[in-house]
Design a protein that fits this description.
It is a single chain. With about 575 residues, this protein is an alpha/beta fold. About 45% of the residues lie in helices and about 10% in strands. It is built from 24 helices and 17 strands. The strands form five sheets. A six-stranded mixed sheet has the order 11-10-9-12-13-14, sandwiched between helices. It is flat, with a radius of gyration of 30 Å. The N terminus is likely disordered.
């Protein structure tokens, strides 16, 4: 038995470059910790990896030893992988049989049961299955361990004792994974960081994230959540800023929850410069903010410190130059003006004039180069998900028949407020767009091949419509098995024209496009429809940008996610003050 004078928690250092310092320990309070070969490892629940421990410092805790370098055996990934290479009767096992072999193997059965526990959030059953598997000698792989870490990090129990027990088991499982030389991945570290977060130890969570790069693993945004939110909750401002800096260095872009937490903690300590920086980061990456973030911004503008912050005199020319350089809607010259802020919830009229201060919002330009790069990246994504030859054929067709003033998502438009595919409704929209087009050219209608050849398309009236569009070079039928979303979106982007659809473009496909340029493009190019008894109404893109805007006189307008459903106007936060 090894006695430690302080409450010491042994865990792998995860530093692939260490020499013979194989494990790390971290201490805070004085306790006795007992290690023996056959007894479970006891740990406290708020400890952090700190300094390395030499081999001689933990003789008797040999079951925690690791080799000089973090090398892992690929065979640990899946115990069933070897069975995949076997043959039956000299013939290669079919894919179906291989799958059945993997599924019916002890490792496969365990995987299925643990996945069911994960879906149900049943950590107790998960731990029982894990213990049973270890007793029976089942070889656990990366997926097994990750599911167990996830379960332990998501289930804190109903009381303090349950929380401590689950945290203790979670870190025992984490250590066992390393002892078994099962290679960790991003999910491993992220789940371990979440486990540290449950223990309210953001220091440990951040240390785990920082060690990911030593294994060649790049952290994701979710990896930074546990330390960042933990530091913000504890009011540890400098540490929260350190996590933010590490995110930026790693090329991870913070989203609204992270920026909102940083904004609140910065406002709480009256860090006006940081608040200003974070408002602009919200402007570039989030654009419209949720109600919880609006309240944080609102509280800042109403604070006494905000009233005292700002330049009483500023260089008007520099401010105007900043507006031009940024494409409009902001100047980046810092807080302008002095005195109390007038903060109200308001709306914009159709021209973008504020209902509170009367200022007209800007329509922020989109760089043509950005549009070109976006079209290229879009085609690359499509090549990876569509039949490449089919999409190249479409691009060639578009070069021959384009450009167009508008592209219509035919299926979406035909089914708005309809139970069946309505060609008449689609034709009304097509004619309306042709009438308002500067060139009087028909818009491009994108329809799936099945919509063109079958169903309602077989009626004489609809056949005539389709023939007219086809002869005019204004109809493209996407091939069988394709996703027509790629086609109409690429056509609208490459033609730099309007896109007519009520599709909000929020599913997985559009998430691949990122959160920076695509929302700006969509705002300036998407035409939406409403259908009522009085007819079809086209809702053109607004003549102003729906994004956080900073005016030349120091005022701010913040769009919320409340409203803007074609029926309810969007709510805005307007903050202005008298300039002295």
């Amino acid at each position: 038995m090894l006695l430690c004078r302080s409450s010491t928690f042994f865990a792998p250092s995860f530093n692939a470059k260490t020499s013979q310092n194989l494990c790390s320990y971290f201490t805070k309070k004085t306790q006795l910790v007992s290690f023996s070969k056959n007894s479970p490892i006891f740990c406290s629940y708020s400890y952090l990896f700190a300094k390395p421990v030499k081999d001689s410092d933990f003789i008797g805790a040999h079951n925690l030893l690791m080799k000089k370098k973090a090398t892992f055996c690929n065979s640990a990934i899946s115990a069933t992988s070897r069975s995949d290479e076997k043959a039956v009767g000299g013939n290669v096992v079919s894919k179906r049989l291989k799958k059945k072999v993997r599924r019916d193997a002890p490792e496969g059965v365990l995987r299925f049961k643990l996945d069911m526990c994960s879906k149900a959030g049943d950590v107790v059953e998960g731990l029982r299955l894990y213990d049973e598997a270890r007793r029976n000698g089942v070889e656990l792989n990366q997926h097994h361990y990750n599911v167990m870490l996830y379960l332990c990090s998501q289930n804190g129990g109903e009381n303090g004792s349950d929380l401590k027990l689950i945290c203790k088991r979670g870190f025992e499982i984490f250590q066992q994974m390393i002892i078994d030389k099962v290679p960790p991945n991003e999910a491993t570290f992220t789940n371990a960081a979440r486990l540290a977060s449950v223990m309210e130890d953001p220091e440990m969570a951040f240390d785990l994230v920082k060690q990911m790069k030593g294994f060649g693993i790049m952290p994701k945004l979710r990896s930074y959540g546990p330390p960042l939110f933990g530091f913000c909750k504890k009011g540890m401002v400098d540490k929260a800023y350190e996590v933010d800096a590490h995110m930026i260095e790693s090329g991870v872009v913070a989203e609204e929850p992270e920026l909102s937490s940083l904004l609140k903690i910065s406002a709480d300590i009256n860090n006006a410069d940081k608040v200003y920086e974070l408002l602009h980061r919200l402007r570039t990456s989030v654009r419209q903010v949720m109600e919880s973030t609006v309240r944080v911004i609102e509280d800042w503008f109403k604070s006494e410190h905000a009233a005292k912050t700002g330049k009483e005199n500023w260089d008007v020319i520099k401010v105007k130059e900043g507006v031009v350089r940024g494409g409009g809607g902001w100047h980046g010259q810092g807080w302008l003006g002095h005195g109390q802020w007038r903060v109200v919830r308001t709306q914009m009229d159709k021209k973008g004039v504020c209902g509170s201060c009367g200022e007209r919002l800007a329509c922020i330009d989109i760089d043509p180069g950005e549009t070109e790069n976006f079209a290229i990246s879009l085609s690359k994504l499509a090549f990876g998900r569509e039949v490449k030859a089919d999409f190249i054929q479409f691009q060639e067709w578009l070069q021959q028949h384009g450009p167009f003033d508008a592209v219509v998502d035919g299926a979406n438009v035909s089914l708005i407020n309809q139970q069946t595919f309505n060609f008449s409704q689609l034709n009304t929209v097509v004619n309306r767009l042709q009438d308002t087009s500067p060139s009087k050219k028909l818009p491009l209608v994108i329809l799936h091949k099945s919509r063109v050849n079958g169903g309602p398309a077989q009626s004489p009236y609809n056949k005539k419509l389709l023939e007219r569009w086809k002869n005019s070079g204004a109809l493209y039928a996407t091939p069988a098995g394709s996703n027509d979303d790629w086609y109409w979106l690429y056509a609208a982007v490459s033609c730099r024209c309007l896109l007519v659809t009520n599709d909000e473009m929020r599913d997985h496909l559009f998430q691949l496009l990122g959160t920076s340029f695509f929302p700006r493009w969509k705002e300036k190019h998407q035409v939406r429809l409403s259908v009522s008894r009085s007819g079809i109404a086209l809702h053109m893109p607004p003549p102003y940008s729906i994004v956080i805007q900073e005016s030349e006189n120091g005022g701010w307008h913040v769009p919320t996610t409340t409203g803007d459903d074609l029926e309810t106007p969007r709510q805005w936060l307007c903050a202005t003050r008298s300039v002295k």
